[in-house]
């Protein structure tokens, strides 16, 4: 707004500028959307298909970014952004006039938003992980930590639980003494 006198007209944001702003603030909570860093510029070019791997590569995109930005700046403004796109457009659409080529590239970007990847990726059970986590194959002291169903026993499986029964630890027939020592047969009187 001109902050001013008379009827206020809303500033018209083009679809291209809208996309510029979306990419400019991508991944940066403090970004205002008025300028764009190199990382987001590369992402925009990649997500919108400006980089085709033939006429335009990631390197070209980086070179153009460095060329249009101000010497000490780390970001580009919207006007520098359009300048950079026009530069890439000439490379991408060699057979078109500069103006047509630029329009062609603008159309690729208009209305687009950053593609957020890797958000809904499900954990893939690899055979290695399932082999390592199969408790039935555990040996030694580790197998003591799980019951027959493969559930952990918690503290009982890890900590030496004091056995006050009087038997030597590891004695297989614990608790069978009373059964073995039966009363001697009574002789009838």
TrEMBL record:
Keyword Protein transport set for record: no
Subcellular locations according to the entry: Cytoplasm
Keyword Cytoplasm listed: yes
Protein name: Tubulin polymerization-promoting protein-like
Gene: LOC107677661
Entry-linked InterPro entries: EF-hand-dom_pair (IPR011992), TPP/p25 (IPR008907)
Broad class of the protein's primary localization: cytoplasm
Molecular function per GO: tubulin binding
One example of a Gene Ontology biological process annotation: positive regulation of protein polymerization
Pfam families assigned to the protein according to its UniProt record, in alphabetical order: p25-alpha
Organism this protein belongs to: Sinocyclocheilus anshuiensis
Domain of life of the organism encoding this protein: Eukaryota
Family, as annotated: Belongs to the TPPP family.
Keywords, in A-Z order: Cytoplasm
GO cellular component: cytoplasm; microtubule
SUPFAM superfamilies documented for this protein: EF-hand
